[in-house]
Design a protein that fits this description.
- One of its GO terms (cellular component) is oligosaccharyltransferase complex.
- The chain has eight helices and 31 strands.
- The strands form seven sheets. The protein has an eight-stranded mixed beta sheet with strand order 5-4-8-2-1-12-15-14, with no helix packed on it. Strands 21-24-18-17-27-30-29 form a seven-stranded mixed beta sheet, with no helix packed on it. Strands 9-11-16-13 form a four-stranded antiparallel beta sheet, with helices on one face.
- It is an alpha+beta fold.
- The structure holds 2-acetamido-2-deoxy-beta-D-glucopyranose (NAG) (2 copies).
- One 2-acetamido-2-deoxy-beta-D-glucopyranose (NAG) binds next to strand 31.
């Protein structure tokens, strides 16, 4: 801070005083508004030509230390006031570098529409807006402290001309004033300090004044803001704003206690801000607000026919020096912002941030035009940098043209409308729908093809029925296999009963075993019969049927031979034949049985593999 102060003094100390013309300021009223983070100086100046030559430019001066924070200056005619208010004419203001002037002063030339003749006078207003001119002092504060700032200026307007009568009023926030410079004719009314009137100040006069006062207004500074405005001829203007925001006030030191903050937010963290309000146009819709973590729901939206207010709340209160990055997005109705003029379309929309009293160090506005637009021209009511880019998004063939505008040190006063004119062939507009239609066509065709192939599993289609039947056939064949296996188990039991007989000689038990086996085999053969008749009627089974029938026949054959063998053996036992005799009698039978058993096993295996 002291550094700035020194520079300011040096700036003023080296002033030479070459007389530039015969103009004089007959009356100057200046008002300095220090109630926010932005410094606004309005001056009403009455200028008179005392010389003989016609003069058409008036010079304004700011010390370079101030001028480098100047973000906006405008000069307007004051003549229409009262009678024809609203018809104020803007006078062009340009930076000029008159010869032999110290580099510590910056000159602005106001061009008058009509030259001032000898003796003529004119009243005009100058409105200058500065950022970062209020220096927090002390530079660091704790959560419990209020924020104080310093401001320097001169009580006399810095001017290359004699100033006959002048006065200044400085409006401070309604809070504590630590210090203000008292000169002669200084009066204070509440938070407003008045200097003057002072008479006959020679060119380049100055009188340093200094203010040290409490200012707890929010100091939101977007170090960078990228606004993307995307025009879609299909009905909307989509705006996305990426903020990199810092609280530009006194740095917080000694940490932060959320408990203290929540208990008494105004006493604890007086200069912190927890909310920002964006003033969006009426009929804004599809609003969202998110940061790196995700969507933030602590935002509120309300509006009427004239405006929409979006209140956003970062995840933590913003203390001095603290940063946050977030994005807000919203859509606007196209017809409110896109117009036609002489065969061209033009977008007419506001330039700056919609957030109240935010200072933007670097603003980038990207206007994304529909694909196929050409012949752009841009009309912005203040100086800026400009270039073109391309943006490729889905469905684009060669990308959308993007007009990029960049401006540094942007204040709410820059929230003026600007226009982007472009030519657009309506045929181009059909490109995307044609692509879409083609896409849908392809989709439908694929669907139809798919549906057709799908028919094969439709419930009523023959192939579906065939598949069902095949499933059924398979189930039945499985059941046949099961029954055959059960039969084979019974065969094994019969054999086992013969072995028991040779061991125990119990003929009755053996007969009983055959009886039981007979009964079971009869049951199973009944079941087999019905299964076979199903298979015989099933078209799907024609291939497999002969094998199944063969299996069933062989099993039956096997069964019969087994029973015969059984009876023969039992009979031999009853007749008390010897072992050898019995073996001889069943030998041929036994051979056939072994072969049949092998064939049945093979058939079972074969059918199983289907
Ligand atoms: C955030 O909100 C937007 C708009 O409502 C939505 O498109 C997006 O999917 C949301 N993102 C998350 C992570 O919820
Ligand atoms: C742009 O819109 C503003 C606000 O609606 C309006 O005042 C201005 O005349 C428009 N500019 C043009 C060139 O249409």
């Amino acid at each position: 801070m002291t550094f700035k102060l020194d520079l300011f003094l040096i700036t003023l100390a080296v002033i030479l005083s070459p007389v530039l013309s015969d103009l004089i300021f007959t009356k100057v009223d200046r008002r300095i508004d220090l109630t926010s983070q932005i410094v606004r100086i309005s001056s009403t100046i009455r200028v008179e030509n005392e010389g003989t030559d016609v003069v058409s430019e008036v010079l304004l001066i700011f010390p370079v230390e101030q001028a480098k924070y100047l973000s906006h200056i405008q000069a307007t005619s004051n003549e229409g006031k009262g009678k024809a208010k609203g018809s104020a004419i803007n006078f062009p203001v340009n930076v000029v570098y008159p010869k032999e002037m110290p580099p510590t002063l910056k000159f602005y030339s106001v061009s008058l529409p009509k030259g001032l003749n000898k003796g003529d006078s004119l009243t005009f207003d100058v409105f200058a807006v500065f950022t970062h001119l209020l220096s927090p002092f002390p530079e660091t504060i704790t959560q419990a402290d209020v924020q104080f700032v310093l401001f320097l200026d001169t009580a006399y307007i810095l001017s290359p001309y004699t100033v006959k009568v002048q006065s200044l009023s400085v409006k401070l926030p309604e809070a504590r004033i630590e210090f203000y410079t008292k000169l002669e004719n200084t009066k204070i009314h509440g938070s407003e300090i008045k200097y003057g009137p002072y008479e006959n100040a020679p060119p380049y006069s100055f009188a340093l004044i200094r203010f040290h006062f409490e200012n707890n207004q929010p100091f939101p500074v977007a170090q960078e803001l990228v606004r993307e405005i995307e025009v879609s001829h299909w009905g909307s203007v989509q705006i996305t704003e990426h903020y990199n925001l810092v609280n530009g006030g006194a740095q917080n030191k000694g940490g932060f206690s959320r408990f203290d903050y929540q208990a008494r937010p105004f006493a604890r963290g007086a200069s912190a801000f927890s909310k920002l309000v964006a003033k969006l146009p009426p009929r804004t819709h599809s609003v969202y607000y998110r940061d790196e973590i995700g969507n933030i729901s602590t935002s509120h939206l309300w509006g009427n026919l004239r405006k929409t207010d979006l209140e956003i709340e970062p995840r933590y209160p913003m203390f001095g020096g603290w940063r946050t990055s977030f994005t807000i997005g919203y859509s606007l109705p196209l017809q409110d912002f896109l117009f036609q003029d002489q065969g061209k379309r033009f977008l007419n929309i506001s330039f700056g941030s919609p957030i109240n009293e935010v200072v933007v160090d670097r603003l980038i506005v990207r206007v994304v035009l529909p694909e196929g637009s050409s012949d752009f021209s841009v009309s912005v009511p203040f100086s800026h940098k400009q270039w073109h880019e391309k943006k490729i998004s889905h469905l684009d063939i060669d990308g959308r043209p993007v007009v990029v505008l960049e401006k540094e040190n942007v204040v709410p006063e820059h929230n003026q409308h600007f226009q982007v004119y472009y030519k657009f062939n309506s045929i181009s507009m059909l490109r995307e729908p044609i692509m879409l239609i083609f896409g849908f066509f392809v989709l439908f065709v694929s669907c139809i093809i798919y549906m057709h192939s799908d028919m094969s599993i439709s419930k009523s289609s023959p192939s579906y029925l065939a598949k069902l039947q095949w499933d059924e056939v398979q189930t039945v064949i499985q059941q046949v296999q099961n029954i055959i296996n059960r039969c084979l188990t019974i065969h094994d039991k019969l054999d086992a009963s013969l072995r028991d007989l040779s061991r125990t000689g119990d003929v009755q038990a053996c007969k009983a075993a055959r009886k039981a086996a007979d009964a079971s085999l009869k049951e199973l053969s009944k079941e087999l019969k019905s299964l076979l008749s199903f298979l015989q009627s099933a078209q799907q089974a024609t291939q497999i049927l002969p094998k199944v029938e063969e299996l069933v026949a062989k099993e039956r054959d096997l069964q019969e031979r087994l029973v015969v063998k059984h009876m023969t053996v039992v009979d031999c036992y009853e007749k008390k034949f010897g072992g050898r005799e019995i073996e001889n009698r069943v030998a041929s039978q036994q051979q056939r049985i072994t072969t049949l058993r092998q064939e049945v096993d093979d058939l079972l295996e074969f059918i199983d593999e289907i």
